[in-house]
Amino acid sequence: MEERLNTAVNDRVWPKEGWSRVPFWVYTDPDLYKRELDLFFYGRSWNYVALECEIPEKGSFKRSWIGERQVVVVRGENDAVHIWENRCAHRGARLCWKNKGKEESFTCPYHQWNFALDGKLQGVPLKRGVLKKGGMPTDFDNATHSLTKLQVHVENGTIWASFHSNPPLFSEYSGPQVMQAIHRHFPGRKLKLLGYNRQLIPSNWKLYIENLKDPYHATLLHSFLITFGLWRADTQSESLPTVSGHSLMMSRNVGKKKTDVNDGMTRFKDSLELHDKDSVTPLREFDDGQVVAITHFPSVVVHQQANTFGMRHIIPKGIDSFELAWTFFGYEDDSQEMTRLRIRHANLYGPAGYVAMEDGEVLSESQAGAHHADAFNAVLEMGGRDVEPQDHMVTEVLIRAFYKHYREAMGL
Amino acid sequence: MIERLETLTSGELPAANELRSLTEDVRALYEDVARQLDDDLVEQFPDFFIDDCSYQVVSRENFAEGLPQATIYCDGIAMVRDRVIALRQTQVYVPRTWRHFISGVRVMAVVDGQLHVRANFMITEAMSDQDPTLFLVGQYLGILVNIDGRLKFRQHLAVYDNHHVRRSLIVPV
Question: Which residues in chain A have their CB less than 8 angstroms from residue B79's CB?
């Protein structure tokens, strides 16, 4: 009998099978986690932080996160959007103490250094001293002590940020297929905020990325989806890996229908009916009749399912925990009826979601399983062993493609 | 209906003796609901509501900003019944034990036969192989009506203080 230690004591070496295996140390190694933060979140990438409708007026602000660093997204003069790190240029205290609000400028509570909406240092109390004693040196120049500013990109109502001084073009980073999907959900119509939902899931953040690259589980775990025809294995679908670790999953809402495929699924409940039919009956919104999920690496998943839209912001909190911050939205010009449906269909999602609740469960259990299992690997051969786009959902191709990208970027 | 009904924080109140008795009835209602939920008797949950009801488990964030979406959103008794159906028929989750702790039950106003009430709640959660942890903390805001001598919810809000829900919210609060 081969004996195997749980811990791989050598340098991190990827299994010889390549991208159809994921070693469990990927979810538990703290040094790798730090490298991921630096490379993917704080490096030459774009991160989702907010929607324009969350900061409607001059001075409106919202705190947000990129990786484990907190930023403040501010509406400045002339509709400009500014994003700076929530850390005073003086001695590093967080200076913005509210999640959302409106200010004319930002004053750090500690020593009252005052910053303009764009993060420039405007005022330093007692700069010239008191009674000819103290004060700043004469060569102290406010201009060199502004808050840490991030690059900003606004795309049809969505706001993105980069810590890098020279990030790629947003369209290049996203790639043409993801850009097309973004414009499908964000065609330039003004957005309307419907609400927030936040979960703290005790698993490595990458397991959530993988979750939305795993259409295979959607048709098996999420009984609610298949029972009410919101997502089914026998529907025309696509699993599309794209550049930079992003991907798209496309399917259709076809309604309840018993077929041979569902017969094989233990969780399909043919005779199940809801009392409130509207909860699972979408108003057709898109001519193509499609349901599209966009995974934009590393920071966000954008869902469009039934009549609910949402940004699912992925915020790592340590190696084995992450916040999933949901922002539900619609359009300003939605009818009352559409808004009513959007709020109803949001019941699918969030921590109590008819669908999403189960993801929180299996992710937590996955992390528990990965614990002290460095020498073992996840097996990803559903749909084959390659990384090419596929026109169905019975596949793990998106996860394989993701780890192809991950290994190249991380040098593994 | 999209907006939440306003739960009054002050207003007309009956005389002291009647108020005391009413408060007892309100406390009994919340505790009965909690006991049944904790004992996994969720099928009886819809009986505590009138048909034209509203039941929401909502974050303080959404509540304070007047945002209409809620973590659990039920507009009418049909959606409350659907929560029970989904829980029993479709939801997949690791079994655990929840326990409610309710305090600070107060009747804030009695207007047009409707009681505007509030209470504090705290729920602990114990996975089968772990010790209890604090799961959800917040405030019940209720608008109750008397139906044939029994208090029922016209609107039942559980506004939770948590910034995050830890892991999953499986059962009504």
Answer: 275-276, 279, 344, 347
